[in-house]
Amino acid sequence: MKDLLKRAKNNDSLAKEEIIRMYYPLIIKESKIIYLKNKSFEDIVQIGILNLLHAIDKFDLTRDVDKFPSYALWAIKNGYRYLCRNEIRYNDEISLNNKTDNDFELGLNIVDESINIEEKVINDILYEELYLALEKLDYEEREIIEFLYISNSKPNLSKFSVLKGKDYYYCSCLKKRALKKLKAFISSQFTGHNSQF
């Protein structure tokens, strides 16, 4: 991989094409969750490829080359988030307090200024990734994670074991196993490697 990256950084088009081929499925996957009003799916895919090429140029070869997959994924996702933020800002600028064709100023206050839109977009993306990770768990594992971390009450492991009629030690092992699976899945999303559960 180091040799391939070195060649790509030296503008070897074959090396760049090889890296693009390696990351193309990831770019397609990430492109499918992005919707921008003025961009086609193909445009979004091309932007992902440009983000990957930028990551190749910026990656420091003195670092551990095994870190490149997570660096590339971060660059691709970050590029898309930046694009989404710009789209949101652009839409805000052209939609609020504009004059109509008849020179009437709309002066609409549609956006609640207390809401941080960038944060909401990022939270939505993270929520979607967490939801996908939860889908990888079996029923009992998902149930314990939802009970301990997602419900609005203040539950604890003792309550869960009593509620389910299960041994506390069993529930503790179940929780650890579920968290380990979640961590492995989420790590695989950022490194581009598939984890086996």
From TrEMBL:
NCBIfam families: sigma70-ECF (TIGR02937)
Protein's GO biological process: DNA-templated transcription initiation
Protein name, UniProt field: RNA polymerase sigma-70 region 2 domain-containing protein
Gene Ontology MF terms in the entry: DNA-binding transcription factor activity
Coiled coil: none
Naturally occurring in which organism (per UniProt): bioreactor metagenome
UniProt-listed Pfam families: Sigma70_r2
Ranges for domain RNA polymerase sigma-70 region: 20-85
